[in-house]
Amino acid sequence: MIASHRSGEAGFVAGLESLAFGVLVFVLGTLAVVNAWAVIDAKFATSAAAREAVRAAVESPDAGAQPARAEAAARAALAGHGLEHPAQIVPVVVGLARCQEVAYRVRTEVPALLLPGITARVRPFVVSSEHREVVDPYRSGLAVTQGEAPACGF
Is the model's pLDDT at 132 over the cut of 80? Predict the structure, then answer.
């Protein structure tokens, strides 16, 4: 006796709907990952900008040129990372004396990806980085009183 095997649509339940739901979950998950990566990328960019701002400030020839050089270096670092969001470059500690600490903070906002229905409740992500350096105790070109020895404490 040969059993006949029929292939019909009996027992086919919710196949197409689960496929559409799976695609929806995949698309929303991808958008969440892309948004998270944008925040991580902005953190890398602000960290590099703060580091370059401090480095330019510490190496500037005089205190008058220090803020402009720091801002230009930070903007160049942000442009190099492709960050198109406006960023605030704030000097935390500024000065140009041997052993003095110099610090800059760079802050930007990364807009959240907007999805229909949740646009009103989502605020942009704030990304901030700060970097500090000490002016070289043996740097030439800075005014020194006679017999002064640098006392950096290290």
Answer: yes
Distance CA 61, CA 64 (A): 9
Q: Nearest to residue 84, comparing CAs of 122, 47, 45, 121?
A: 45
Q: Do residues 74 and 49 lie in contact, with contact meaning Cβ atoms separated by under 8 Å?
A: yes
pTM above 0.85, yes or no: no
Locate the domains of the chain by residue range.
Answer: 19-134
Q: Are 77 and 69 in contact, with CB atoms under 8 Å apart?
A: no
pLDDT, tens only, 71-117: 999 999 999 999 877 889 998 988 888 888 899 999 999 988 777 66
Hey, what are 8's tokens?
């019909």
Provide the 10 A C-beta neighbour count for residue 30: 10
Contacts of 103 (CB under 8 A, 6+ apart): 54, 91, 92, 93, 130, 131, 132, 133
Secondary structure of 46-70 as H, E, C letters:
HHHHHHHHHHHHHCCCCCCCHHHHH
What does pLDDT average to over the chain? 83
- Which amino acid makes up residue 132? R
Name which residue leads in pLDDT, 111 or 2: 111
